[in-house]
Structures are given as C-alpha cells and as structure tokens.
Amino acid sequence: MTRTSHPPVIIASETLERLERLAEAAMARNPDLADRLLTELSRAKVLPLERLPEDVAAIGSSVTFRDETMGRDQTVVLTWPEDADIAQGRASVLTPIGVALIGLKAGAQFSWDTRAGETREMTILSVSRADPVTPAA
Predict the structure, then answer these.
(1) Which pTM does this prediction carry?
(2) What gap in Å lies between CA 54 and CA 112, rounded to an integer?
(3) Alpha helices in 43-124 (DSSP H)
(4) What is the pLDDT along the chain (137 residues), one digit of tens a residue?
(5) Phi, psi values for residue 8, rounded to 5°
(6) Which of 26, 28, 33, 133 is 20 to 30 A from 79 in CA distance terms?
(7) Which terms does the record give in the GO molecular function aspect (predicted)?
(8) Which domains does the chain have, with CATH numbers?
(9) Are 25 and 38 spatial neighbours (Cβ–Cβ below 8 Å)?
(10) Alpha-carbon Rg of the chain, whole angstroms?
(11) What is the distance, to the nearest Å, from the Cα of residue 23 to the centroid of all Cα atoms in its chain?
(12) For 48, what's the count of Cα atoms within 13 Å in the CB-facing half-sphere?
C-alpha cells in the first residue's frame, strides 16, 4: 500500500483550539508527536460541529481500523487525554494512534508510526459518534 498524499483531515471548529493547546503543551515532553498533531491540524479543513460528517473521527468517535501490516482490526474511542483508558478502549488524541486517526473519514488509508518506531499501514473501516462532540475546558 503506497500513498502519494495524506488522506484529508476534517476537524470540528469547536475542538480545534483545544487540540492546538494540547499539542503546544506536549512540545517539551514529546516534540515528535506534538509536531505531528500540529501538522495534521494545519492541513485540516475546519467545519462547525453540526457540519462535521458522521463518518469523520472526532473526539468521542468510535473508530474501527485495520492494521494491514498485522492483519488485525481494532476499535477505539477517541478521547481527551484525561478521559483515556486504553484498557477500556479509550485512546487519547495525544497518543500516536489518536493523532493518526483524528479528522480522518471511514475508508481512509494511512501510514502510522507506533511508539516502538514501526511503520504500519492502516485503513479506517468505520466511524460512529454516539454522543455529540463537546469541547471540554
């Protein structure tokens, strides 16, 4: 699976500022991850929440994706860092997989660098939002 470009990113305007603040705050602790998040945000199309398509991964979305490299499917709910609990499938937007998934639509294919430094090929199989996305303070 080769990519010539990155899949489009769409972010709700109600969450953009908080995502930018999280990335800036993480710059000292994890500059590579923070830089990746800021890069994704800088190329994002920003829409009001009510216009965000249902199949775009946002805070609160349940995202099922396939690790094409390992041949394994996984589902996570994207959360703010304080709500994350990977044992319960709640992945922080401030983790490598959270940064990779935020703003992508179902069907998107992308490369993802794991914490161990491995590059994996991924496909988003489905995205659903049970609750409205709210910008936490």
Answers:
(1) 0.85
(2) 23
(3) 96-101
(4) 334 468 999 999 999 999 999 999 999 999 999 999 999 999 999 999 999 999 999 999 999 999 998 899 999 999 999 999 989 999 999 998 999 999 999 999 988 877 788 888 999 999 998 654 444 44
(5) -60, 150
(6) 28
(7) DNA binding; kinase activity; RNA polymerase binding
(8) 10-129 (3.10.50.30)
(9) no
(10) 14
(11) 13
(12) 2
